Amino acid sequence: MKTVFVLIFAFCSALCFCDKISFSADYMQGSASETNNKTVLERHAHITTETFRINANLIELEDENYRYVTATGGVRGKSLNSGLDFTCDKLFFDRKTNLVYFEGNVSVRDDKNNVDAYSQLMEYDLNTEIATLQVNVRLNQNNSKGTGSLAVYKINDKTVDLTGNPKIVRGEDIFKAQKITLNIETEEILLDGKVSGNVTSEDN
After folding, report:
1. Which one of 4, 92, 135, 155 is most buried, counting C-beta atoms within 10 A?
2. pTM of the predicted model as reported, rounded to 2 decimal places
3. Which residue range(s) make up the domain with 133?
4. Spatial contact of 71 and 78, defined as CB atoms under 8 Å apart
């Protein structure tokens, strides 16, 4: 019975979204009706689409075309296009819009550019590869350590815009402004609005 349900699920998903989806778990239960389509994957739950991969203790797939994915407990995700790795307490994925929402202890790792970012909330657009982090944002990239209330990480542009009392610290040097833009590739920073800072000069 489970095998039949899996085959029907995979076939319908491919037709509705033109996006292959595969999944596995230790336990699965599901229902399919005119008013309620829901599949629950428990224990070592895993799903993979053409753009995103999710691992969690519990994954729920809902809506008529299994458009919505909710993951909780030990959540790990990965963008298969950019290679970014994510962890959080809870994840919500809209397969139709390709938007992913993260809640609670959000962590982002970009191995290609040696970037680590942390926040409490984040929205990630798989179409544009732009991550928007909110609440207690922290960013580490080589010698730069940034903080702020909001960060917009544009992966393709290799830039991070920090706002909300942003600050970047490099060793003993401190930079503040209304908006700080960090170029991930060159490590240059651009300060905009009410600029201030403390810079330590090296003795020759």
Report:
1. 155
2. 0.82
3. 113-204
4. no
Angle, CA of 32, 37 and 40, to the nearest 5° = 100
Q: What is the DSSP letter of 203?
A: P
- Provide the sign of the torsion angle of the four alpha carbons 169, 182, 154, 80, taken in this order: negative
pLDDT tens-digit series, residues 51-60: 899 999 999 9
Whole-angstrom distance, CA of residue 169 vs CA of residue 180:
12
- The low-confidence residues of the chain, meaning pLDDT below 70, are 1-19, 31-36, 64, 194-196, 198-204
Cβ neighbours, 10 Å, residue 21: 19
pLDDT tens digits, 70-92: 999 999 999 998 899 999 999 99
Residue 76 CB partners (closer than 8 Å, separation 6+): 54, 55, 56, 85, 86, 87
- Write down which residue in 79, 111, 143 finishes a domain: 111
Residues 71 and 130 in one domain: no
d(CA 78, CA 81): 9
Q: How many distinct structural domains can be found in the chain?
A: 2
| Last residue within a domain, chosen from 84, 111, 138 | 111
